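Students often ask why inverse folding is considered easier than folding. One informal answer: many sequences map to the same fold, so there is more than one right answer. In these notes we will look at a single instance of the problem. The structure comes first.
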Protein backbone atom coordinates (compact mmCIF):
# COMPACT_ATOMS: atom_id res chain seq x y z
CA UNK A 1 0.00 0.00 0.00
CA UNK A 2 1.35 3.43 -0.96
CA UNK A 3 2.18 5.73 1.94
CA UNK A 4 0.12 8.88 1.34
CA UNK A 5 1.82 10.97 4.01
CA UNK A 6 3.71 14.01 2.67
CA UNK A 7 7.47 13.55 2.38
CA UNK A 8 9.76 16.28 3.72
CA UNK A 9 13.48 16.41 3.04
CA UNK A 10 15.28 18.17 5.88
CA UNK A 11 18.78 19.41 4.98
CA UNK A 12 21.11 20.28 7.86
CA UNK A 13 24.86 20.19 8.22
CA UNK A 14 24.72 20.07 12.03
CA UNK A 15 22.58 17.08 12.96
CA UNK A 16 23.17 14.54 15.75
CA UNK A 17 25.70 13.49 16.85
CA UNK A 18 26.96 17.01 16.07
CA UNK A 19 27.04 19.14 19.21
CA UNK A 20 26.90 22.63 17.63
CA UNK A 21 24.43 25.17 18.99
CA UNK A 22 21.92 24.80 16.16
CA UNK A 23 21.70 21.03 16.42
CA UNK A 24 18.89 21.15 18.99
CA UNK A 25 16.67 23.17 16.67
CA UNK A 26 17.47 20.82 13.79
CA UNK A 27 16.72 17.70 15.82
CA UNK A 28 13.49 19.11 17.22
CA UNK A 29 12.27 20.28 13.82
CA UNK A 30 12.83 16.93 12.14
CA UNK A 31 11.24 15.09 15.05
CA UNK A 32 8.25 17.42 15.07
CA UNK A 33 7.56 16.90 11.36
CA UNK A 34 7.57 13.16 12.05
CA UNK A 35 5.29 13.53 15.07
CA UNK A 36 2.78 15.51 12.98
CA UNK A 37 2.46 12.79 10.38
CA UNK A 38 5.14 13.53 7.78
CA UNK A 39 7.58 11.07 6.30
CA UNK A 40 10.97 12.61 7.07
CA UNK A 41 14.32 12.17 5.38
CA UNK A 42 17.29 14.06 6.82
CA UNK A 43 20.27 14.86 4.63
CA UNK A 44 23.34 15.62 6.72
CA UNK A 45 27.09 15.10 7.05
CA UNK A 46 28.78 11.87 8.01
CA UNK A 47 29.42 11.22 11.70
CA UNK A 48 33.20 11.38 11.37
CA UNK A 49 33.08 15.09 10.56
CA UNK A 50 31.55 15.85 13.94
CA UNK A 51 33.77 13.51 15.91
CA UNK A 52 36.89 14.97 14.32
CA UNK A 53 36.10 18.67 14.16
CA UNK A 54 33.23 19.95 16.34
CA UNK A 55 32.91 17.40 19.09
CA UNK A 56 30.05 14.92 19.23
CA UNK A 57 27.24 14.11 21.62
CA UNK A 58 26.24 10.44 21.17
CA UNK A 59 23.22 10.88 23.44
CA UNK A 60 21.64 13.24 20.90
CA UNK A 61 21.58 10.61 18.19
CA UNK A 62 19.47 8.40 20.44
CA UNK A 63 16.80 11.11 20.39
CA UNK A 64 16.18 10.98 16.64
CA UNK A 65 12.67 9.67 15.93
CA UNK A 66 13.19 6.08 14.70
CA UNK A 67 10.77 6.72 11.83
CA UNK A 68 13.18 9.28 10.33
CA UNK A 69 15.56 8.15 7.60
CA UNK A 70 18.96 9.80 7.97
CA UNK A 71 21.11 10.01 4.85
CA UNK A 72 24.74 10.88 5.64
CA UNK A 73 27.09 12.14 2.95
CA UNK A 74 30.83 12.89 3.00
CA UNK A 75 32.06 16.25 4.25
CA UNK A 76 35.67 17.35 4.14
CA UNK A 77 37.09 20.26 6.14
CA UNK A 78 40.69 20.75 4.96
CA UNK A 79 41.11 24.09 6.74
CA UNK A 80 40.72 22.40 10.13
CA UNK A 81 42.79 19.32 9.30
CA UNK A 82 45.30 18.99 12.14
CA UNK A 83 46.76 15.63 11.12
CA UNK A 84 50.00 16.56 9.37
CA UNK A 85 50.05 13.17 7.66
CA UNK A 86 47.03 14.33 5.65
CA UNK A 87 48.66 17.56 4.53
CA UNK A 88 49.84 17.97 0.94
CA UNK A 89 53.44 18.85 0.24
CA UNK A 90 52.38 22.33 -0.88
CA UNK A 91 50.54 22.93 2.40
CA UNK A 92 53.40 21.68 4.51
CA UNK A 93 55.88 23.86 2.60
CA UNK A 94 53.89 27.09 3.03
CA UNK A 95 50.79 26.79 5.25
CA UNK A 96 49.78 30.49 5.02
CA UNK A 97 49.84 30.55 1.23
CA UNK A 98 47.97 27.25 1.08
CA UNK A 99 45.30 28.53 3.46
CA UNK A 100 44.59 31.59 1.29
CA UNK A 101 44.38 29.38 -1.78
CA UNK A 102 42.08 26.92 -0.02
CA UNK A 103 39.65 29.62 1.11
CA UNK A 104 39.34 30.85 -2.48
CA UNK A 105 38.87 27.30 -3.78
CA UNK A 106 36.15 26.62 -1.24
CA UNK A 107 34.08 29.49 -2.61
CA UNK A 108 34.23 28.61 -6.29
CA UNK A 109 30.99 26.61 -6.25
CA UNK A 110 29.30 28.62 -3.51
CA UNK A 111 30.40 31.77 -1.62
CA UNK A 112 31.01 30.17 1.76
CA UNK A 113 34.48 29.31 3.03
CA UNK A 114 34.90 25.69 4.20
CA UNK A 115 31.38 24.69 3.15
CA UNK A 116 31.20 25.73 -0.51
CA UNK A 117 32.47 22.41 -1.91
CA UNK A 118 29.63 20.58 -0.15
CA UNK A 119 27.16 22.03 -2.66
CA UNK A 120 27.74 19.39 -5.33
CA UNK A 121 27.57 16.59 -2.76
CA UNK A 122 24.22 17.57 -1.25
CA UNK A 123 22.63 18.56 -4.57
CA UNK A 124 23.43 15.12 -5.96
CA UNK A 125 22.16 13.41 -2.81
CA UNK A 126 18.93 15.45 -2.86
CA UNK A 127 18.32 14.43 -6.48
CA UNK A 128 18.81 10.77 -5.59
CA UNK A 129 16.46 11.00 -2.61
CA UNK A 130 13.78 12.67 -4.75
CA UNK A 131 14.18 10.08 -7.53
CA UNK A 132 13.74 7.22 -5.06
CA UNK A 133 10.86 8.77 -3.11
CA UNK A 134 9.24 11.97 -4.39
CA UNK A 135 9.89 14.91 -2.05
CA UNK A 136 6.88 17.15 -1.37
CA UNK A 137 8.72 19.81 0.64
CA UNK A 138 12.33 20.66 1.45
CA UNK A 139 13.35 22.43 4.64
CA UNK A 140 16.97 23.57 4.76
CA UNK A 141 18.53 25.07 7.86
CA UNK A 142 21.56 27.29 8.19
CA UNK A 143 24.22 27.81 8.93
CA UNK A 144 26.07 26.82 6.80
CA UNK A 145 24.03 28.45 4.09
CA UNK A 146 25.16 26.00 1.43
CA UNK A 147 22.33 23.74 2.63
CA UNK A 148 19.90 26.03 0.83
CA UNK A 149 21.37 24.98 -2.53
CA UNK A 150 19.94 21.46 -2.26
CA UNK A 151 16.47 22.89 -1.67
CA UNK A 152 16.88 25.35 -4.54
CA UNK A 153 18.01 22.56 -6.88
CA UNK A 154 14.91 20.45 -6.24
CA UNK A 155 12.71 23.52 -6.63
CA UNK A 156 14.18 24.59 -9.95
CA UNK A 157 14.35 21.11 -11.48
CA UNK A 158 11.26 19.49 -10.01
CA UNK A 159 9.08 22.27 -8.59
CA UNK A 160 9.50 21.15 -4.97
CA UNK A 161 8.62 24.03 -2.59
CA UNK A 162 11.14 24.84 0.12
CA UNK A 163 11.62 26.59 3.46
CA UNK A 164 14.75 28.49 4.49
CA UNK A 165 15.33 28.21 8.25
CA UNK A 166 17.87 30.67 9.60
CA UNK A 167 19.45 30.10 12.99
CA UNK A 168 21.18 33.48 12.75
CA UNK A 169 21.57 35.44 9.51
CA UNK A 170 23.72 35.42 6.40
CA UNK A 171 24.09 39.06 5.43
CA UNK A 172 23.65 40.49 8.94
CA UNK A 173 26.18 40.39 11.78
CA UNK A 174 23.82 39.69 14.69
CA UNK A 175 26.38 40.97 17.20
CA UNK A 176 27.26 44.34 15.65
CA UNK A 177 24.23 44.95 13.45
CA UNK A 178 26.53 45.59 10.50
CA UNK A 179 25.99 44.20 7.05
CA UNK A 180 28.41 41.35 6.29
CA UNK A 181 28.09 41.26 2.49
CA UNK A 182 27.51 44.15 0.12
CA UNK A 183 24.46 44.20 -2.19
CA UNK A 184 26.48 43.27 -5.28
CA UNK A 185 28.34 40.40 -3.61
CA UNK A 186 27.80 36.78 -4.61
CA UNK A 187 26.38 36.00 -1.17
CA UNK A 188 23.80 38.80 -1.46
CA UNK A 189 22.81 37.75 -4.97
CA UNK A 190 22.45 34.14 -3.85
CA UNK A 191 20.29 35.07 -0.88
CA UNK A 192 18.06 37.30 -2.97
CA UNK A 193 17.18 34.59 -5.47
CA UNK A 194 16.79 32.00 -2.70
CA UNK A 195 14.38 34.19 -0.72
CA UNK A 196 12.40 35.08 -3.83
CA UNK A 197 11.91 31.40 -4.71
CA UNK A 198 11.23 30.12 -1.18
CA UNK A 199 7.74 29.34 0.10
CA UNK A 200 8.68 30.46 3.61
CA UNK A 201 11.70 31.91 5.40
CA UNK A 202 12.04 31.37 9.16
CA UNK A 203 13.97 33.45 11.68
CA UNK A 204 14.55 32.90 15.38
CA UNK A 205 13.42 36.32 16.60
CA UNK A 206 11.53 39.42 15.49
CA UNK A 207 14.52 41.77 15.25
CA UNK A 208 16.22 39.54 12.68
CA UNK A 209 12.96 39.07 10.77
CA UNK A 210 12.30 42.82 10.79
CA UNK A 211 15.77 43.50 9.37
CA UNK A 212 15.09 41.14 6.48
CA UNK A 213 11.63 42.57 5.85
CA UNK A 214 13.29 45.93 5.19
CA UNK A 215 15.75 44.23 2.86
CA UNK A 216 13.07 42.23 1.00
CA UNK A 217 9.80 44.20 1.36
CA UNK A 218 8.15 42.36 -1.54
CA UNK A 219 8.75 39.04 0.24
CA UNK A 220 7.60 40.17 3.72
CA UNK A 221 4.52 37.92 3.67
CA UNK A 222 6.62 34.76 3.56
CA UNK A 223 8.96 35.76 6.41
CA UNK A 224 8.08 34.26 9.81
CA UNK A 225 9.48 34.20 13.31
CA UNK A 226 9.83 30.64 14.55
CA UNK A 227 11.48 31.06 17.91
CA UNK A 228 13.57 28.43 19.55
CA UNK A 229 12.01 26.73 22.53
CA UNK A 230 12.60 24.12 25.19
CA UNK A 231 12.09 20.38 24.97
CA UNK A 232 9.75 19.42 27.85
CA UNK A 233 11.23 15.95 28.32
CA UNK A 234 14.70 17.40 28.92
CA UNK A 235 13.75 19.93 31.57
CA UNK A 236 14.43 18.95 35.20
CA UNK A 237 11.54 18.74 37.63
CA UNK A 238 12.06 21.59 40.06
CA UNK A 239 8.46 21.95 41.20
CA UNK A 240 9.20 20.57 44.66
CA UNK A 241 12.45 22.44 45.21
CA UNK A 242 12.48 24.69 48.27
CA UNK A 243 14.46 27.88 48.70
CA UNK A 244 18.14 27.23 49.43
CA UNK A 245 18.33 28.56 52.98
CA UNK A 246 20.91 26.35 54.63
CA UNK A 247 23.61 25.53 52.07
CA UNK A 248 25.97 27.23 49.63
CA UNK A 249 24.33 28.27 46.37
CA UNK A 250 25.19 26.84 42.97
CA UNK A 251 25.10 29.14 39.93
CA UNK A 252 25.25 27.38 36.58
CA UNK A 253 25.83 28.00 32.89
CA UNK A 254 25.12 25.46 30.15
CA UNK A 255 26.15 26.09 26.56
CA UNK A 256 29.04 27.07 24.33
CA UNK A 257 31.25 29.87 25.63
CA UNK A 258 32.13 31.76 22.45
CA UNK A 259 34.74 34.52 22.23
CA UNK A 260 31.82 36.99 22.27
CA UNK A 261 30.74 35.91 25.77
CA UNK A 262 31.91 38.32 28.52
CA UNK A 263 33.63 35.57 30.50
CA UNK A 264 36.32 37.78 32.03
CA UNK A 265 33.79 40.41 33.14
CA UNK A 266 31.64 37.68 34.67
CA UNK A 267 34.52 36.20 36.66
CA UNK A 268 35.49 39.62 38.00
CA UNK A 269 31.86 40.37 38.87
CA UNK A 270 31.53 37.00 40.58
CA UNK A 271 34.57 37.67 42.75
CA UNK A 272 33.17 41.07 43.73
CA UNK A 273 29.78 39.56 44.62
CA UNK A 274 31.33 36.81 46.73
CA UNK A 275 33.30 39.39 48.69
CA UNK A 276 30.24 41.56 49.37
CA UNK A 277 27.36 39.20 50.18
CA UNK A 278 27.05 36.68 52.98
CA UNK A 279 24.36 34.93 50.94
CA UNK A 280 27.11 33.99 48.45
CA UNK A 281 29.41 32.50 51.06
CA UNK A 282 30.78 29.23 49.69
CA UNK A 283 28.79 29.68 46.45
CA UNK A 284 29.97 28.01 43.26
CA UNK A 285 29.70 29.01 39.60
CA UNK A 286 29.76 25.96 37.32
CA UNK A 287 30.35 26.29 33.58
CA UNK A 288 29.08 23.34 31.55
CA UNK A 289 29.68 23.05 27.80
CA UNK A 290 32.42 23.86 25.33
CA UNK A 291 34.98 26.63 25.58
CA UNK A 292 35.14 27.87 22.01
CA UNK A 293 33.62 26.43 18.86
CA UNK A 294 35.58 23.21 18.67
CA UNK A 295 36.20 20.06 20.68
CA UNK A 296 39.43 21.31 22.28
CA UNK A 297 38.81 23.99 24.97
CA UNK A 298 40.32 27.40 24.24
CA UNK A 299 43.37 27.84 26.44
CA UNK A 300 42.64 31.49 27.28
CA UNK A 301 39.09 30.74 28.44
CA UNK A 302 40.21 27.76 30.48
CA UNK A 303 42.90 29.89 32.14
CA UNK A 304 40.33 32.58 33.02
CA UNK A 305 38.18 30.01 34.80
CA UNK A 306 41.08 28.18 36.46
CA UNK A 307 42.46 31.45 37.84
CA UNK A 308 39.16 31.96 39.65
CA UNK A 309 38.94 28.44 41.10
CA UNK A 310 39.59 29.63 44.65
CA UNK A 311 36.47 31.80 44.43
CA UNK A 312 34.31 28.85 43.38
CA UNK A 313 34.38 29.09 39.59
CA UNK A 314 34.85 25.77 37.80
CA UNK A 315 34.74 24.31 34.32
CA UNK A 316 32.70 21.10 34.25
CA UNK A 317 33.21 20.15 30.60
CA UNK A 318 30.57 19.22 28.00
CA UNK A 319 27.29 17.70 29.10
CA UNK A 320 25.23 15.39 26.91
CA UNK A 321 21.71 16.49 26.11
CA UNK A 322 20.29 13.40 27.78
CA UNK A 323 22.18 14.26 30.99
CA UNK A 324 21.44 17.96 30.90
CA UNK A 325 18.57 17.69 33.38
CA UNK A 326 21.04 16.44 36.00
CA UNK A 327 23.16 19.55 35.50
CA UNK A 328 20.17 21.86 35.90
CA UNK A 329 18.96 19.91 38.90
CA UNK A 330 21.85 21.14 41.04
CA UNK A 331 21.50 24.81 40.02
CA UNK A 332 19.93 27.40 42.28
CA UNK A 333 20.51 30.22 39.81
CA UNK A 334 21.08 30.12 36.04
CA UNK A 335 23.69 32.24 34.28
CA UNK A 336 22.74 33.50 30.81
CA UNK A 337 26.03 34.73 29.37
CA UNK A 338 25.77 36.02 25.79
CA UNK A 339 27.72 38.17 23.38
CA UNK A 340 26.48 41.69 22.74
CA UNK A 341 23.99 42.18 19.91
CA UNK A 342 20.49 43.52 19.35
CA UNK A 343 19.74 40.48 17.21
CA UNK A 344 21.08 37.87 19.68
CA UNK A 345 18.59 35.63 21.47
CA UNK A 346 20.23 32.21 22.00
CA UNK A 347 18.28 28.99 22.23
CA UNK A 348 19.49 28.57 25.78
CA UNK A 349 17.19 31.27 27.14
CA UNK A 350 14.11 29.12 26.47
CA UNK A 351 15.55 26.14 28.29
CA UNK A 352 16.35 28.40 31.22
CA UNK A 353 12.78 29.68 31.24
CA UNK A 354 11.37 26.18 31.54
CA UNK A 355 12.99 25.55 34.92
CA UNK A 356 11.43 28.50 36.70
CA UNK A 357 14.75 29.15 38.47
CA UNK A 358 16.24 32.65 38.85
CA UNK A 359 18.12 33.88 35.78
CA UNK A 360 21.02 36.34 35.79
CA UNK A 361 21.45 37.95 32.36
CA UNK A 362 25.15 38.58 31.85
CA UNK A 363 24.69 40.28 28.50
CA UNK A 364 23.99 43.68 27.00
CA UNK A 365 20.51 44.90 28.00
CA UNK A 366 19.66 45.55 24.33
CA UNK A 367 20.08 41.89 23.32
CA UNK A 368 16.97 40.28 21.85
CA UNK A 369 17.08 37.85 24.77
CA UNK A 370 15.88 40.70 26.98
CA UNK A 371 12.67 40.86 24.94
CA UNK A 372 12.00 37.22 25.77
CA UNK A 373 12.78 37.55 29.48
CA UNK A 374 11.04 40.84 30.18
CA UNK A 375 8.32 40.25 32.78
CA UNK A 376 9.87 37.10 34.25
CA UNK A 377 9.48 37.38 38.06
CA UNK A 378 12.93 35.92 38.78
CA UNK A 379 14.95 37.68 36.09
CA UNK A 380 17.99 39.70 37.13
CA UNK A 381 19.47 41.63 34.20
CA UNK A 382 22.65 43.65 34.40
CA UNK A 383 22.43 47.38 33.76
CA UNK A 384 25.63 47.13 31.71
CA UNK A 385 28.28 44.49 31.15
CA UNK A 386 30.74 45.56 33.82
CA UNK A 387 32.01 43.64 36.86
CA UNK A 388 30.22 46.10 39.17
CA UNK A 389 26.83 45.67 37.47
CA UNK A 390 27.27 41.91 37.22
CA UNK A 391 28.06 41.70 40.94
CA UNK A 392 24.87 43.60 41.75
CA UNK A 393 22.72 41.23 39.67
CA UNK A 394 24.38 38.16 41.18
CA UNK A 395 23.74 39.40 44.72
CA UNK A 396 20.07 40.11 43.94
CA UNK A 397 19.65 36.64 42.39
CA UNK A 398 21.30 34.99 45.38
CA UNK A 399 18.82 36.69 47.69
CA UNK A 400 15.92 35.53 45.53
CA UNK A 401 17.23 31.95 45.49
CA UNK A 402 17.14 31.98 49.28
CA UNK A 403 13.84 33.81 49.80
CA UNK A 404 11.47 33.38 46.82
CA UNK A 405 8.26 31.66 47.91
CA UNK A 406 6.26 28.99 46.07
CA UNK A 407 3.97 31.58 44.52
CA UNK A 408 6.79 33.43 42.79
CA UNK A 409 8.43 30.20 41.64
CA UNK A 410 5.13 28.98 40.19
CA UNK A 411 4.68 32.24 38.28
CA UNK A 412 8.23 31.91 36.93
CA UNK A 413 7.50 28.42 35.57
CA UNK A 414 4.18 29.54 34.08
CA UNK A 415 5.96 32.39 32.33
CA UNK A 416 8.06 29.92 30.36
CA UNK A 417 5.31 27.50 29.30
CA UNK A 418 4.48 29.33 26.06
CA UNK A 419 8.04 28.76 24.85
CA UNK A 420 7.67 25.00 24.58
CA UNK A 421 9.33 24.10 21.28
CA UNK A 422 6.35 22.32 19.76
CA UNK A 423 4.21 25.41 20.28
CA UNK A 424 6.70 27.40 18.21
CA UNK A 425 6.91 24.88 15.37
CA UNK A 426 3.38 23.53 15.02
CA UNK A 427 1.66 26.56 13.40
CA UNK A 428 4.18 26.69 10.56
CA UNK A 429 4.30 22.92 10.01
CA UNK A 430 0.49 22.77 9.92
CA UNK A 431 0.38 25.64 7.42
CA UNK A 432 2.94 23.88 5.22
CA UNK A 433 0.94 20.65 5.40
CA UNK A 434 -2.14 22.47 4.14
CA UNK A 435 -0.13 23.99 1.28
CA UNK A 436 1.43 20.68 0.25
CA UNK A 437 -1.85 18.80 0.44
CA UNK A 438 -3.58 21.54 -1.53
CA UNK A 439 -0.96 21.32 -4.26
CA UNK A 440 -1.31 17.54 -4.39
CA UNK A 441 -5.08 17.81 -4.72
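Output (designed amino acids):
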Amino acid sequence: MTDSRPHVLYVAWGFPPCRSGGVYRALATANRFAALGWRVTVLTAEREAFHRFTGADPTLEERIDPAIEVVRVPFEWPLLEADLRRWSKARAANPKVWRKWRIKQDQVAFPEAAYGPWRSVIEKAAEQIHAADKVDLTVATANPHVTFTAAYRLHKKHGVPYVMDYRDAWLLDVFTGDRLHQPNSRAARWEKKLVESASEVWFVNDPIKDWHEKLYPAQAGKLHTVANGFDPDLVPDVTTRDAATDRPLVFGYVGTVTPKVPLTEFVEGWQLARSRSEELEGARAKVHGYLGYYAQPRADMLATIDDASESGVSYEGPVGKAEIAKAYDEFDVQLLMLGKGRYVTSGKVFEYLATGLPIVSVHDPDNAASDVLRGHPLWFPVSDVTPEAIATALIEAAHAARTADDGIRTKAREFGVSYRRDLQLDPRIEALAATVQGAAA
